[in-house]
Automatic annotation (TrEMBL):
GO terms for cellular component: ATP-binding cassette (ABC) transporter complex. The keyword Cell membrane applies. The lineage of its organism: Bacteria, Pseudomonadati, Pseudomonadota, Alphaproteobacteria, Rhodobacterales. It comes from the Bacteria. This is ABC transporter ATP-binding protein. The keyword Glycoprotein does not apply. PROSITE patterns: ABC_TRANSPORTER_1, ABC_TRANSPORTER_2. Residues 6-237 form the ABC transporter domain.
């Protein structure tokens, strides 16, 4: 296996006795983008600051290309870590031109200085703005310059903290994709912090899901989305429909028929969770629903409470006959049944997640 560019083991940071970063370990290869994803306050920015060297961990090891930058008494100062930073308040130097901003981190006498600046301006599509000042640029253009500036000294690692949150939605998608292209072309190892699942899914080769200072799950976006480690991990990515049941003889009886839950002791309460797009809707036939099938189990009846068109999909909310609770279904494109319409819901057994019930983590 190739040596990781960035490797972290057992990182701990405490503030006033409270552990804000708990035993965080990760590794990122050159050219790989990893996203630290988690709710506000879970310790993402603190982790980034420890790697950047603007804060010191209480425990743990940080290595870059196998060389310790934090280990035992070793503390390599921030400017010698080979790490580029791009934060939300990236502020370009207002009195410098675009070109001068990009060249800021490069030695004046470096022989390839001009070529490097030109190369990066080209790469981020800003060559024709080289002589302008930041106030003459749009937010997106400023962002491109900030990226070029951060990449100019060829950092081995790039740390990005919510770098796109100042941009409006449409622009953000474009800038994200462009940024990704540039970072891949440069072969930098990237650790990006975000609290937005869509941003992580769009950018990351690997998502590191963080909660209460810990990485609770790491994996490719597909894996994290489709094999969440627990209910909060599943709920972080979309609305969830949750049905509670109690296991008896490896089965849980529900209004949608029995669910197989092998290996779970009798009497255990389980949460069966299903994402809204995996609910299947069928019509009411004189008070009867569709026949049960092995893949979808039994149908349960609900009454449409409201339906809304969301653009690429419709969101339909049902009040279920069995317990009066609301379940949410996403249907591709347009499906807008009138409130009060009785319909039947089923869901695919292989698309739902079953977890032992736990009182919600605060
Ligand atoms: N210097 C500090 N002194 C005391 N507590 C701190 C300090 N820095 C951060 N914290 C606390 O550590 C916790 C984690 O903060 P951190 O900024 O890392 O979270 P985050 O996941 O990046 O959140 P956000 O997305 O809101 O920036 C918070 O509860 C914060 O109040």
């Amino acid at each position: 296996m190739m040596q990781p560019r960035l490797e972290i083991q057992g990182l701990v940071r405490r503030f006033g006795g409270r552990e804000v970063v708990s035993d965080v370990s990760l590794s990122i290869a050159a050219g790989q983008v990893s996203c630290l994803l988690g709710p506000s306050g879970c310790g993402k920015s603190t982790t980034l600051r420890l790697i950047a060297g603007v804060d010191m961990p209480d425990e743990g090891v940080i290595r870059v290309d196998g060389q310790p930058i934090v280990e035992g008494t070793t503390r390599v100062p921030p400017e010698r870590r080979g790490i580029g930073l791009m934060f939300q308040d990236f502020a370009l130097f207002p009195h410098l031109t675009v070109e001068q901003n990009v060249g800021f981190g490069l030695a004046k006498a470096a022989p390839d200085r001009r070529a490097r600046i030109a190369e990066l301006l080209e790469r981020v599509g800003m060559s024709r703005h080289a002589a302008k000042h930041p106030h003459e640029l749009s937010g997106g253009e400023q962002q491109r310059v900030a990226l070029a500036r951060a990449l100019a000294p060829r950092p081995r690692i790039m740390l990005m903290d919510e770098p796109f949150s100042g941009l409006d939605d449409r622009l953000r998608d474009d800038i994200r994709d462009e940024t990704l292209e540039v970072l891949k072309a440069e072969g930098t190892a990237v650790l990006l912090v975000t609290h937005e699942p869509t941003e992580a899914m769009r950018m990351a080769d690997e998502i590191l899901l963080m909660r209460d200072g810990r990485i609770v799950q790491a994996g490719a976006p597909y894996t994290i989305y489709n094999n969440p480690v627990d209910l909060p991990a599943a709920a972080f990515f979309s609305d969830l429909n949750v049905i509670r049941g109690r296991v008896q003889g490896a089965l849980t009886e529900t209004p949608f028929g029995p669910f197989l839950v092998p290996g779970v002791p009798d009497g255990t309460e389980v949460d069966i969770a299903i994402r809204p797009q995996h609910l299947k809707i069928d019509f009411d036939r004189a008070g009867k629903g569709p026949l049960s099938t092995p893949t979808h189990g039994e149908a349960a009846r609900g009454v449409v409470e409201r339906a809304r068109f969301m653009g690429s999909e419709s969101l339909v909310e049902f009040r279920m006959d069995f317990d009066g609770r609301v379940l949410k279904a996403h249907v591709p494109w347009v499906f807008l049944p009138k409130p009060g319409t009785p319909l039947w819901l089923m869901f695919r057994r292989d698309r739902c997640f079953v977890f032992p019930h736990q009182p919600r983590v605060a």
